[in-house]
Design a protein that fits this description.
The protein is globular. The mean pLDDT is 88. It is an alpha/beta fold and 240 residues long. Helix 1 packs antiparallel against helix 5. 34% of the residues lie in helices and 19% in strands.
């Protein structure tokens, strides 16, 4: 299963161009069952607020060289060090194990479940205002949670803990980027590629038209071997 591998490699190279540091392994910051509102009056600042970049991407692999072990990485200032709205990115890479023998539909179900998890993780005082249409994920940071010691190490541990509850997930790497000099445009392109691959699978398995001549995803499917094989397995005549 190497659908995302080429783009994960490109994304990691991009991230490594900046000075990143691996954060210490700490106890997970508190996660809640449902998202709690952080009102503007309760907000210290917003990651990706206003016209600032607010990038979020999720990629999957089975390659232990790409994602050898779990970890939380930070490029830029940590939550307690930030004083005003800043651009941000959160790139999550999941290494799955045991999925190679799954049929296409079963593998797709694994992806769908993890996509659902992605949008249902609620660190307390870290309110994600997700817009899939605008491809943005700004985050309101609570004053109270900052005073209690919330930082990216704890928030990253919260995300990792939730993903690790899935039996297929063997490693979770989360990259937080707040460096004002980071290339957020390039990170957005990486995140968009992840989303396009997932969306291409959605189009196939949700029963949309398989007329590739009219599909905006055709170029992507022709480029990525795994997607080409998926089309062949679905008897699509347009991918050679």
């Amino acid at each position: 299963m190497r659908l995302y591998d080429k783009d994960i490699l490109a994304c990691k190279k991009l991230l490594e161009e900046r000075a990143s540091r691996r954060l210490p392994t700490v106890k997970s910051w508190r996660c809640t069952d449902q998202e709690a509102l952080v009102l503007r009056s309760d907000m210290a600042y917003e990651l990706g607020g206003g016209t600032k970049a607010a990038v979020s991407g999720l990629g999957f692999t089975t390659d232990s060289d790409l994602v050898p072990e779990s970890g939380v990485f930070l490029i830029g200032p940590d939550l307690p060090e930030i004083r005003e709205d800043v651009s941000c990115a959160r790139i999550t890479l999941l290494r799955l194990e045991g999925v190679e023998g799954l049929e296409s539909q079963q593998l797709y179900s694994v992806f769908r479940k993890l996509e659902y998890t992605r949008y249902h993780i609620y660190p307390e005082g870290y309110m994600m205002r997700i817009s899939t249409v605008k491809e943005r994920e700004p985050v309101r940071i609570s004053k109270a949670s900052l005073k209690e010691g919330m930082d990216f190490a704890g928030v990253g541990a919260c995300f990792a803990e939730q993903y690790a509850g899935d039996p297929w997930v063997k490693a979770v790497q989360t990259y937080f980027v707040t460096d004002p000099g980071a290339d957020y445009g390039a990170l957005q392109k990486c995140a968009r590629r992840f989303e396009q691959i997932t969306e291409s699978m959605n189009l196939v398995f949700q029963g949309f038209s398989m007329d590739c001549s009219t599909c905006g995803q055709r170029e992507l499917c022709e480029e990525i071997d795994g997607l080409k094989e998926l089309h062949k397995s679905m008897d699509c005549p347009c991918i050679g």
